[in-house]
Amino acid sequence: MMEEKKYKIIIVDDDDFLVDMYVTKFNGSDVAVEAYKSGEVLLEKLKNGEKADLILLDIVIPGINGLQVLEEMRKNKLAEGIPVIMLTNQNDEKDMTLAQKLGVSGYIVKSAATPSEVVTEALKVIKDKK
Questions:
Q1: Domain total in the chain
Q2: What is the pTM of this model?
Q3: CA 95 centroid distance within chain
Q4: For residue range 2-49, what is the model confidence (pLDDT) as tens digits?
Q5: Whose CA is closest to 10, among 66, 63, 64?
Q6: pLDDT tens digits, residue range 75-126?
Q7: Which residue segment(s) compose the domain that 59 sits in?
Q8: DSSP of the chain
Q9: 2 located within any domain
């Protein structure tokens, strides 16, 4: 039987290498991870009632970008109460401002944060919410 992880997070990113790295890190911190390669998949899953304690969302992903995904989530009241952290290489003021307007709980620039820091930040957001 699979042991229950304490938390569950969803990562939306199309970089397999990075996703694997984060999955490994999170698994070590008692966090189960679902990874999706596109925002469309995420929206579909959320519409079908997928739940998580946190969503890590990249901006540059295939199809619609992470900020559009977020707008869509807010508009359709998807993932209400689930904190979202943007995890991206976009270090752009415009993107940050829009992300904040859309109510993200964090904005992490990949190149500026180690996977361990990402895990720490994610867990902090989850615990602050609990």
A1: 1
A2: 0.94
A3: 16
A4: 568 899 999 999 999 999 999 999 999 999 999 999 999 999 999 999
A5: 66
A6: 999 999 999 999 999 889 999 999 999 999 999 999 999 999 999 999 999 9
A7: 7-129
A8: -PPPPSEEEEEE-S-HHHHHHHHHHHHHTTEEEEEESSHHHHHHHHHTT---SEEEE-SS-SSS-HHHHHHHHHHTTTTTT--EEEEES---HHHHHHHHHTT-SEEEEGGGS-HHHHHHHHHHHHHHH-
A9: no
